[in-house]
Specification:
Blueprint: H1 2-30, H2 38-56, H3 59-83, H4 88-107, H5 132-137, H6 141-159, H7 161-171, H8 173-178, H9 183-209, H10 221-231, H11 236-258, H12 265-269, H13 271-285, H14 287-293
Helix pairs in contact: 1-6, 1-9, 1-10, 1-11, 2-3, 2-4, 2-9, 2-10, 3-4, 3-9, 6-7, 6-11, 10-11, 10-13, 11-13
Length: about 300
């Protein structure tokens, strides 16, 4: 029972950064912007989040630093793609390279340092319930916020006029512009929101997952988050299941090594990313479902008439 509880807790912890980053990217892509720089924004959030928490002793301030770092890097992306109409794919890849290099520079002075991880919730009697107690009532604030964030995004996209406008911009920016909606402004806010979420997802790693910072600690999670958006068919509620599925793959490969199954460790370490590739291939073949759900203007440059 203890092992089962530990596995569930590990899966939740491994899934939370994926869910946070993918939720922000979903909003950005719903507006028609394809930002491939999620990995760079996450690692910047990790470096700045740890620096903020280490210097101030506050996990909350560290999380805010991570959000600000991700949003600042996404602002660079927005300036290139929205302001200068640069190709979104090329700009996103450049953003990842920039984020990885800049995070190494910022975090160099903090390598080897430790902080107190984010405190977990404790409710008398409820947290002590076997298995479900710690899973439901013993998580840190990042976990609960990630679930609330997805619920809020669902409500925003499907229950508000602003969400309808954002989806309209993603489906046809030309028509939305003709109706008088500020396409570039809407996309700017969506990109900033996505960057802030990616930065928070990266900050979760040193603030709650492991209480220290090492260069490259995101380890490709940004790319998995991008795949999750496609996996969920751009629907927020499906994103939760996808994130926890990929988190389970990540954790189970670690337990498989511990059980001594005789499978090469390199192959097991590649399993989450292999699963990402397989998911993308399967979804691309199922054009009748996932393909039709993609925003029609996704990745297209928009230049308003002057």
């Amino acid at each position: 029972m203890g092992l089962l509880e530990a596995i569930f807790l590990s899966v939740i912890a491994a899934s939370t950064p994926l869910l946070l980053a993918a939720a922000g990217e979903l909003v950005a892509e719903r507006s028609g912007v394809l930002n491939l720089g999620v990995e760079g924004m996450m690692i910047m959030g990790a470096a700045c989040g740890f620096a903020g928490a280490y210097l101030t002793g506050s996990t909350l301030i560290g999380a805010l630093f991570g959000i600000a770092a991700g949003a600042a890097l996404s602002l660079v992306f927005a300036a290139l793609t929205l302001g200068m109409a640069v190709n979104q794919v090329a700009a996103g890849l450049a953003l990842t390279i920039l984020g990885v290099g800049l995070s190494g520079l910022i975090g160099a002075g903090f390598v080897g340092e430790k902080i107190v991880p984010a405190p977990a919730l404790y409710i008398p009697f409820l947290t002590g319930i076997p298995i479900v107690g710690r899973i439901l009532f013993g998580q840190d604030g990042f976990v609960y916020f990630s679930v609330a964030l997805v619920a809020g995004i669902w409500w925003f996209l499907y229950r508000t006029r602003a969400g309808l406008i954002l989806r309209a911009v993603g489906d046809s920016h030309t028509s939305a512009h003709a109706l008088g909606y500020p396409v570039l402004k809407i996309r700017l806010f969506a990109v900033l929101f996505g960057g802030g979420c990616a930065g928070l997802g990266g900050a979760f790693l040193p603030l709650a997952y492991t209480p220290f910072f090492i260069p490259g600690m995101t380890a490709g999670r940004g790319w998995i988050a991008l795949a999750l958006v496609v996996f969920s068919s751009w629907r927020p509620l499906r994103l939760v299941g996808g994130a926890y599925l990929f988190g389970a793959v990540t954790i189970l490969q670690l337990h498989a090594q511990a059980f001594g199954l005789g499978i090469p460790s390199q192959l097991m370490s590649a399993m989450p990313y292999l699963a990402t590739v397989i998911v993308l291939v399967l979804i691309s073949r199922a054009r009748g479902t996932a393909g039709s759900a993609a925003p029609a203007s996704l990745g297209m440059v928009f230049v308003p008439d002057r």
